[in-house]
Specification:
Isopropylmalate Dehydrogenase; 22% strand; binds 3-isopropylmalic acid; binds manganese (II) ion
């Protein structure tokens, strides 16, 4: 029986539509080859729409998105829009409203790709970060007092619920269980954030032996983790951490795997009926709009993650394999380094997937 999906596509701002064009090119080829189909619904959300109409994410659009099987999102961000409006109004609102409580960020150096880390190759950099995606400092708890006066107070609190922590840990343990090394590292700051990470650490050490006895557990402070990711990334197999630390360490991860030209991320609601969203980690790079110089591999890889999540693993594997091959053929992955146009890279991946 051939599978059919409803996919919402958000083309984004700046260079977002250019990389999404390549992502969809590859998706179309994969659909033909691997026998699935999809109904595509395009959504015009982002800085352009906000500047034109004042709308960020209309409730009616949110309701429509709830009915999709997945959301394929390109980069959002506009130089004329104040920081925070689009990030909170679109990206974070979708993560919260759709309860996408996992942010999955694979960090994998493909063979032939140059990492900025000296003497580190594909055999050293292959781990996955599971970032909690709906709580922590991102929950928006806090406020201002006496704003704009010399007595101003600003409070920003980190919310960590047992349920939120447990479901994130369980997801990470399950991933670790399926991997060859079966090793899960909790990253936190138990020496200073003694309330939040006490909860994380207790939950981690209770769940591990009870539900996942085959998984080796390990703990690193987040500052040490940044050091190890650069010094000895082979230490890591699966990392699980809170929202803020996950945000920070995955930027380090993106760079050691070759840059933002390649890193993709999945905002997952793994529950039955949950709607997940897949995106490149990089931004909209508006100064390069229309120049055909942005590497679309990150967006294409996000598409592969989406297909894996939707259950078409053969297509996902084929796209990932093609991306890995193309990575090895390019002199570099970041802006100005690829030596190829956005469209040429997309064509090459599409041709490899078509076989
Ligand atoms: C990310 C981004 C977002 C985050 C921003 C754009 C709100 O940096 O997806 O990592 O902080 O989560
Ligand atoms: Mn980030």
């Amino acid at each position: 029986m051939s599978k059919s999906f409803k996919i919402a596509v958000i083309h984004g701002d700046g260079t977002g539509p250019e990389v999404m064009r390549e992502g969809l090119k590859v998706l179309d080829v994969a659909a033909k080859k691997y026998g699935f189909s999809y109904a595509r619904e395009d959504y015009d959300l982002g800085g352009e729409r906000y500047l034109r109409t004042g709308e960020v994410l209309p409730d009616s659009v949110l309701e429509e998105l709830r009915a999709q099987d997945a959301i394929y999102l390109s980069a959002i961000g506009h130089p004329d829009v104040k920081p925070g409006i689009l990030e909170k109004g679109i990206l974070l609102r979708l993560r919260f409203e759709l309860d996408q409580y996992i942010n999955l960020r694979p960090v994998k150096l493909y063979p032939g790709v140059k990492s900025p880390l000296a003497n580190k190759g594909a055999e050293h950099i292959d781990f996955v970060v599971v970032r909690e995606n709906t709580e922590g400092l991102y929950a928006g708890a806090g406020g201002n007092l006496k704003k704009g006066t010399p007595d101003e107070v600003a409070i920003q609190e980190s919310i960590n619920t047992r349920k939120g922590v447990d479901r994130c840990l369980r997801y990470a343990f399950n991933i670790a269980k399926e991997r060859q090394r079966k090793q899960l590292t909790l990253v936190g700051k138990t020496n200073v954030l003694t309330y939040a990470f006490d909860l994380w650490e207790r939950a981690f050490n209770e769940m591990g032996p009870k539900e996942f006895p085959a998984v080796k557990r390990n703990y690193h402070h987040v500052d040490a983790c940044c050091m190890y990711m650069v010094m000895a990334p082979e230490m890591y197999d699966v990392i699980v951490t809170d929202n803020m630390f996950g945000d920070i360490i995955t930027d380090v991860g993106a760079i050691i795997q070759g840059g933002l030209g390649i890193s993709a991320s999945g905002n997952l609601n793994p529950d039955v009926g949950g709607v997940s969203m897949f995106e490149p980690v990089g931004g909209s790079a508006p100064q390069f709009t229309g120049q055909n110089v942005i590497n679309p591999l990150a967006c294409i890889n996000a598409g592969a993650m989406m297909l894996r999540h939707l259950g078409v693993a053969d297509a996902a594997n084929a796209i990932e394999g093609a991306v890995a091959k193309v990575c090895g053929e390019l002199p570099g992955l970041n802006i100005g380094e690829t030596g190829k146009g956005t469209d040429e890279i997309g064509d090459r991946v599409a041709a490899l997937v078509a076989g």
